[in-house]
Amino acid sequence: MKFPSFIFGFLVLYTSIPRTNAADTISANQILRYNQTIVSAQETFELGFFSPPNSTNHYVGIWYKKISTRTVVWIANRNTPLTHTSRELTLTLQGVLVLRDATMGNVVWSSMNSTTTSVRNPIGHLLDTGNFIIYEEGDDHNQESPIWQSFDFLTDTLLPGMKQGKDFVTGIERHLTSWGSKEDPASGEFSVSIHTRGYPQLILTQGQNITYRVGPWNGAWFSGAPRLRPNPIYSITFGFEPTSPDQWRVADWSQGCRHTVPLDCDPGEGFNKYSNLKLPDTQGSWYNLTMTLVECEQMCKNNCSCTAYANSNISGSGCLLWFGGLIDMRTAEDGDAIYIRMSASELESIEDSKSSSPGRRSVRVIVPVAFVVFVILVSICLFHCFNRKKQKRQGTSSNKFRHESANGSGDEDLELPLFGLSTILKATNNFSMNNKLGEGGFGPVYKAWVLHNENRSLELVAKCLGESINVPQVLRSIHVALLCVQRRPEDRPTMTSVIVMLGSQGPLPSPKEPGFYVGKTTPDNTQSSSSCEICSNNELSNTVLIGR
């Protein structure tokens, strides 16, 4: 029974021991000691005391939590290290982060600066971005605009969300500075910053000397930011020559190049566009963010000391002017365009070289050939369309009547003749009922057959023709016409026979009764009460003439 009581007492004692878990905040007057840290919510970053390898100095810093090899991204007291473990980090009631030497009692480092403002209930919070912020507790909105943040004081690492450059409101200037050595996080001699003399640009300095210039910001990126690939060999663009050819041959390009033809402010001078370049050093430049490119060109052209101009933003806005030498230019795949002042002779030579380039020569050959081919194709299409319309028009006329009637051109009439309305009116006495023989699907048949049988066919000829007619030819034509309208189809001559009949003088058969003539029906009990109707005796349909 004693054994279970002992176990119970041990469990009670164990659960009563206070356990501390690393939080992501520090409250006012809370002390963070040597062996204590705070960890961001997702355990991405950790803040606390550390010592570099092979060093006895101690620093307050922020490092990656889950990386086995400690990688420090921010240091508070990089230039004022502690040499012993008696140290503490405290957040004061005024919202100031203070690092003290516990032994001596003196302040080694603090976040106090000219922009720090007093707050009530301050709280320090380590975010998963790696930013340590101090804000007033109770209002989450204050986290977006803290009274102090580590991101404003860069060391050697640029994290997502950090900013570089000068804040003209607070006066804080943010730049990266290398470590003194692998074991010493003190400020080294290399620094990366936004140079604000002239148009802002990103530069790398060693002490006071500029060792590399990335180039100005063009609205999307720094114009000369290189890609990770082998460095290209220096070359000179058209219109320039090395300042020192001897040094250029031994790969010493420090003296740069110069115009082949010196500038002398001649009215014929102009500008030539060069693309995909890292823009020159902007320390001595002039800029305006609202001017257009046309205004920029005009301003540079009016100033003889202006050597080049460009847009300050890749969107096409803003103006950058350079005066004097164009320093540190190089080819960049995603570089910008710059317009460099050139002499009249240089511009003329550039145009000649462009026009004599293989591409231009090809264009000079291709364009005329393409134009000739185009004209030929259009001509063929037009001729084809015209020919088709002509054939269609001729085919339509041929369908109406196989051949054209005699129209004074001397062509032979191979089909039925075409008569005008005036001729028909005269021949039928204005469609007189006395001249009508019958009606049917092919219209009225007149008394030509009766007159022919009575040897009076000439009465069908209009009197106005007088003696101008050829009587035998007229009589033969009427005779042939009556043969063509005989009642029985097998009695009718073929068109070949008609041609032979009209062209010869041989005897012709006597025409039989036409296919249509007037007859009277006998009254029928099954039909209408009409006593007499005009109808077709051969039981074909009747055609009723209706004026249109």
UniProtKB/TrEMBL annotation:
Give the matching SUPFAM superfamilies.
Answer: alpha-D-mannose-specific plant lectins, Protein kinase-like (PK-like)
What region holds the Bulb-type lectin domain?
A: 23-147
- Extract one GO molecular function annotation from the record: protein serine/threonine kinase activity
Q: Which residue ranges does UniProt annotate as crossing the membrane?
A: 365-386
- Claim: Cell membrane is one of the keywords in the record: no
Q: Signal peptide position in this chain? A: 1-22
Apple domain: residues covered: 265-344
InterPro entries documented for this protein: Bulb-type_lectin_dom (IPR001480), Bulb-type_lectin_dom_sf (IPR036426), Kinase-like_dom_sf (IPR011009), Pan_app (IPR003609), S-locus_recpt_kinase_C (IPR021820)
**Keyword list, A-Z:** Glycoprotein, Membrane, Signal, Transmembrane, Transmembrane helix
Question: Pfam families this protein is in?
Answer: B_lectin, DUF3403, PAN_2
- SMART domains reported in the protein's UniProt record: B_lectin, PAN_AP
Spell out the PANTHER family in the cross-references: BULB-TYPE LECTIN DOMAIN-CONTAINING PROTEIN (PTHR32444), RECEPTOR-LIKE SERINE_THREONINE-PROTEIN KINASE (PTHR32444:SF98)
UniProt protein name: Uncharacterized protein
Give the organism the record lists.
Answer: Ambrosia artemisiifolia
Taxonomy, top ranks, is: Eukaryota, Viridiplantae, Streptophyta, Embryophyta, Tracheophyta
